Backbone:
């Protein structure tokens, strides 16, 4: 996994981790229509901004629709997943650093 390089994350989903700071990092994620990010959780706090498209997030059992220009906060340890309702692109911001993605 390389910094500033696109990689396949899941079927229909690719991501690029941008160069991280000391305590915060960004990751761009592109979804084909119908592609899903499987449910997971992590101790990191996350902000997700929709650059384009429309997605349905499940965050701790609640559905949140996210469209271009909108953002959502995903608290630490919240179980979350997402499905793209159309081709979509997100910018995820994490703090502290996601060492699991960087190593």
Residues:
């Amino acid at each position: 996994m390389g910094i500033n390089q696109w990689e396949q994350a899941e079927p229909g989903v690719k991501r690029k981790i941008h160069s991280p700071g000391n305590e915060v990092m960004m990751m761009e994620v592109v979804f084909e229509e119908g592609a899903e990010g499987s449910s997971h959780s992590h101790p990191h706090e996350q902000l997700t901004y929709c650059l384009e498209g429309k997605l349905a997030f499940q965050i701790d059992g609640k559905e949140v629709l996210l469209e271009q220009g909108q953002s959502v906060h995903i608290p630490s340890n919240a179980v979350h997943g997402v499905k793209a309702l159309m081709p979509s692109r997100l910018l995820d911001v994490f703090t502290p650093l996601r060492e699991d993605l960087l190593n």
